[in-house]
Amino acid sequence: MSVLIIDGSNLRSGGGVTHLVEILNNMNIERFPFEKVIVFSGKKTLQKIKNNSIIEKRSHILLNMSLPFILLWKFLYLERFLKKLKEKAVLLDPAGTYNGTFRPYISMSRNMLIFEEQESNRFQEWKMRERFRILRKQQVKTFNKAQGIIFISNYAKETILPFLKPREFDYKLIHHGVSKRFRSLPKVQYPISSYTVEKPFKFLYVSPITVYKHQKNVLRAFHELFHVDKLPVKITFVGDYYEPEYKEFLEVKSRLDPKNDFSEYVGKIDYQMLDVYYKEADGIIFASTCENMPNVLIESMTSGSPLLCSNKKPMSEFLGPNFPFSIDPTRVSSIVETTRYFLNNPKTRMQSIMDNLENSESYDWAICSKETFSYLSRFIN
């Protein structure tokens, strides 16, 4: 019997959970290359995975606790379990942190913050910067020992490979997919004169409030667009937060927009409700400067709404070379000027929507699932 073991112990939220859930929920059981899949994770993550005859979901009290307890579980339980395995097995390490003796294992590249020092240095806390440094050292060690690596963007591959020992790496580029519930028909684009303060052009920014997402600069830009340009715009920020940056964001917001005239923050929402926010938006902004293959970007591309997006890599890898609404998130003036151009050019907005929909057609979870499990099956002993 051939068994695929998935260590999802570190996956709690965000793109990692989405990826794990979607590749398993979109697996083709009739053509599946393994006879069994054993998934270890916390209960909340496992509940999102559909039940079927192949998948065996396993949790543990330690997997529902904080990181130190998860590491303890890896040391005390996972290694013991892997050593006792008698079947032909492959271990998938989605978090890129495996440090045990089991072979073969396949790792994944997800977190670019640990490889982009300019971005991790945006965090003022020494502890955070040191944590990223330690994680980079750990992930390089994990990748160097892995039998294979899955990259989800060309940018990640080109950035990370120079950190690794010079050897022949067996790696595979497998793009994420996007859920069909995010796909919508293109929205008709109207001139900005069709909107009013009472019925403004509604922007959406989906991302945790943190230093490399630049929500403060977006807020400052919208203050200028609303008060100086007198444009009828409003932006909704959706997502969790990193406490120190959140405090600064609230300070800026209370100073520039205390009455929510042109902005609002609704906090973290259930992922299953996110498509509702996309459908209600007239436009979307994504101002991150550190990404791998952001789910938010691909979801935005399929939403039928026009998009303003960061000019940093890897965004152009997915948007294509002719994307008209690129912004430099570190410069408020860039956000203002591009948003102004965006609002005053409905025909360009419409063409951009069509291009985004076309560019996003290949991002499918069923394809991602098939390619992932096909690649993993190559390592069956």
UniProtKB/TrEMBL annotation:
GO-annotated biological processes? lipopolysaccharide biosynthetic process
Q: Transmembrane region positions?
A: none
Q: Please state every residue range assigned to the domain named Glycosyl transferase family.
A: 198-351
GO MF term set = glycosyltransferase activity
Q: Which InterPro entries match?
A: Glyco_trans_1
Give the domain of life: Bacteria
Q: Which UniProt keywords apply?
A: Transferase
Pfam name, any one: Glycos_transf_1
Quote the Gene3D superfamilies the UniProt record gives: Glycogen Phosphorylase B
Q: What name does the UniProt record give this protein?
A: Glycosyltransferase involved in cell wall biosynthesis
